[in-house]
From TrEMBL:
The keyword Transferase does not apply. Transmembrane segments: none annotated. It comes from Gryllotalpicola reticulitermitis. This is Cell wall-binding repeat-containing protein. The keyword Membrane does not apply. Keywords: Signal. It comes from the Bacteria.
Length: 658
């Protein structure tokens, strides 16, 4: 449908009472023509069509029409007029050769309100314009009236294609939709509902697919429409011979009204013959999955492969090597075949969660932070008869003292357990009794671990308290006590935050080195730190964290008396990875802890050091660098520290960050 675009602006003539005003001509004009149709067209609105020729001037293309409208018994005369008649009408030209082709009108009135309308059209010629009382009688040619009903439906649209998907399994569809009554242009939401009636009988199968408008379809200036398209993939249950009927519904109010059906279509489809798929191995990191080119019958006109990860297509190649970023995600591979008149078939090639070959996961978790530390202790010291020589005890409500206690506990051959500041949790007391240590070392002053806790612990084993005036002095006291014969090196971390020191604790404990805390910038604590390093005889220092955690000025102060290396990444997770990669070349066990909560990681740091493996801090997924590290280290076990509130259940399968 074409829309005439030239509109003549009406010119008002001055009327003098009792005098007829003439432009050209003095008598009635000789017009012929027809009002062919009045229709409501989905997506366009009300469209009026017809033609007009002035027999006095057959080639003239400046004739115009005058429109009257009647709705609800009320007539609006001349409510829209002076519309030129100059659209191409080859059929009129054939009947009136002397006139030429451009004598049609194709008038789009847009979208009026729902209801029944009567439109009456009269034609006029530029050769005679009369504005007196006899205007209609002398200078207009009535062409008749037509009635059209505008539906109440708020949306229009069409289903342009529906049938077997030529580029993958299932069926595909496309079409357009538009609001009928002037709603703002925007993205339309909709749903395609496929109902399959199997030839073999049985209940109908219904599947749905949601879609949104993807691009503007501007064939009506008053109301642009939106194209839509989609695929309903189907599965084995819907891959049957039968009648496939698709109905498309859209939301007329852009998200605020029920869906309204705009179109339906049906097609009968056959199915390919049965295919035997060769056995597939479970998907694993580093493996290559291959599409075997299945022998579909009859011969398909197109075939292909789709590899999906968690339902998202990631490759259409015949081969896919499973990288670290696929670990923990669900892989689904299909080989598909398409042929006109047949359901586009899909045969599953591989399915399952991508795993790390030879690696198992275990979770160390209790009902709270104290119980989680106990679970770690049980895993590290399963033999209650042997127990542990020394047990360290620190506050579980603050991280500072425990950061230095973790490597010290590992070096002493014991766990790090946590306590409430004011009372020793029963689960911790029970674990201390199971371990029957020869000494319990409490780290922190009486405000961190109260005398009452020390008394309760003293009933189990002799107690030693290590404390300083602040967290920095306490970390120096721990180093002096735990390393009485000195240490070749030391790790230095910020005492203001915890993530860097958690990973450093595992690395330091493994290397039999302390973790010492520092202020981010220069301070008396830094001066005291250099003294402690000198007393330990440390020949090298490893700073963990970027310059915002431990400043360049602190690094310079330390470098004045010993060799300094900095391990840092762009964030706490990548700093953790840098520490683990630098400190370990082989590890049977790797520990994972939350990068946003410290309690579990404190005890986990000591456990990782004892196991000879790194502790990586992570978020809601496992970074691919950590997965690569697990493989590089030759680890066979990953311990997830903390409950699912700390690290969600997807970490159980090493769900990779993508």
């Amino acid at each position: 449908m074409t829309i005439a675009t030239t509109v003549l602006i009406a010119i008002a003539a001055v009327i003098v009472p009792g005098v007829a005003a003439h432009a050209e001509g003095t008598g009635p004009i000789n017009l012929i023509g027809s009002f062919d149709s009045a229709r409501f067209i989905a997506g366009e609105g009300v469209v009026l069509t017809g033609w007009v020729i002035d027999t006095d001037d057959p080639t003239a293309t400046d004739n115009y029409i005058d429109l009257s409208q009647t709705v609800g018994g009320v007539t609006l005369d001349h409510f829209n007029e002076d519309f030129h008649v100059n659209a191409a009408r080859p059929d009129v030209a054939k009947a009136h050769p002397s006139a030429g082709a451009d004598h049609g009108f194709d008038w789009d009135l847009g979208f009026p309100s729902p209801g029944t309308y009567t439109y009456c059209i009269a034609a006029a010629s530029q050769e005679g314009i009369y504005t007196g009382a006899g205007h209609d009688k002398y200078f207009e040619k009535p062409l008749g009236c037509r009635t059209v009903t505008v539906p109440k439906q708020m949306v229009s649209g069409a289903l342009l294609s529906f049938g077997p998907n030529p580029a993958g399994p299932g069926v595909s569809y496309s079409g357009w939709t538009a609001s009928n009554y002037g709603h703002p242009t925007g993205t339309y939401t909709g749903r395609a509902t496929l109902t399959i009636s199997p030839d073999a009988g049985g209940p109908a199968i219904t599947e749905t697919s949601d879609f949104t408008g993807t691009s503007t379809r501007a064939f009506a200036p008053q109301q642009p429409a939106q194209n839509f398209s989609g695929v309903i993939p189907g599965d084995d249950s819907s891959n049957v011979a039968g009648t496939y009927r698709l109905c498309v519904s859209v939301n007329a109010q852009l998200g605020t009204a029920p869906l309204q059906t705009i179109a339906c279509s049906s097609v009968h489809l056959l199915t390919f013959g049965a295919v035997t798929v060769p056995p597939q191995s479970a998907p694993q990191r580093g493996a290559t999955v291959i599409s075997p080119a299945l022998p579909f019958t009859p011969a398909p006109t197109s075939t292909g492969t789709q590899w999906q990860l968690d339902g998202e297509v990631i490759s259409t190649g015949s081969r896919l090597t499973l990288s670290s970023s696929t670990v923990g995600h669900y892989l689904d591979g299909v080989e598909w075949a398409a042929r006109p008149g047949y359901v586009s078939a899909a045969e599953q090639l591989a399915a399952g969660v991508v795993s790390m070959p030879g690696v198992s996961t275990a979770r160390a978790a209790g009902s709270d932070r104290f119980a989680t530390a106990v679970e770690l202790s049980k895993q590290s010291f399963p033999d209650s008869a042997s127990g542990a020589r020394t047990a360290y005890l620190a506050s579980g409500t603050g991280f500072a003292d425990a950061l230095s206690a973790a490597p010290a506990a590992a070096v002493a051959g014991g766990p790090l357990l946590l306590t409430n500041p004011s009372s020793l949790p029963a689960v911790v007391a029970t674990e201390l009794k199971r371990l029957h240590p020869s000494r319990i070392v409490i780290v922190g002053g009486t405000s961190a671990v109260s005398p009452a806790v020390a008394t309760a612990a003293g009933r189990i084993a002799p107690v030693t308290r290590l404390a300083g005036a602040d967290r920095y002095a306490t970390s120096r006291a721990v180093a002096a006590y735990a390393f009485p014969h000195g240490a070749n090196g030391a790790y230095v971390a910020s005492g203001a935050t915890f993530p860097d020191a958690l990973s450093a604790g595992a690395a330091a404990g493994h290397a039999h080195e302390p973790v010492l805390l520092t202020t981010p910038g220069s301070s008396p604590a830094v001066t005291a730190l250099t003294t402690t390093l000198r007393e330990l005889g440390a020949t090298h220092v490893t700073i963990v964290g970027g310059t915002s955690a431990v400043s360049s000025s602190v690094q310079g102060a330390l470098a004045a008396s010993t060799r300094v290396t900095r391990l840092a990444g762009a964030n706490r997770d990548t700093t953790s990875q840098a520490i683990g990669s630098n400190a370990f070349t082989h590890a049977a066990t790797v520990y994972l802890a939350s990068d946003t909560a410290f309690p579990d990681g404190l005890a986990g740091s000591a456990a990782a050091a004892r196991a000879g493996g790194p502790l990586f801090v992570i978020g809601d997924c496992v970074p691919t660098a950590v997965i690569d590290a697990i493989a590089r280290l030759g680890a066979t076990k990953v311990v997830i520290v903390g409950g699912e509130n700390a690290l969600n259940d997807t970490i159980n399968r090493l769900y990779a960050c993508r």
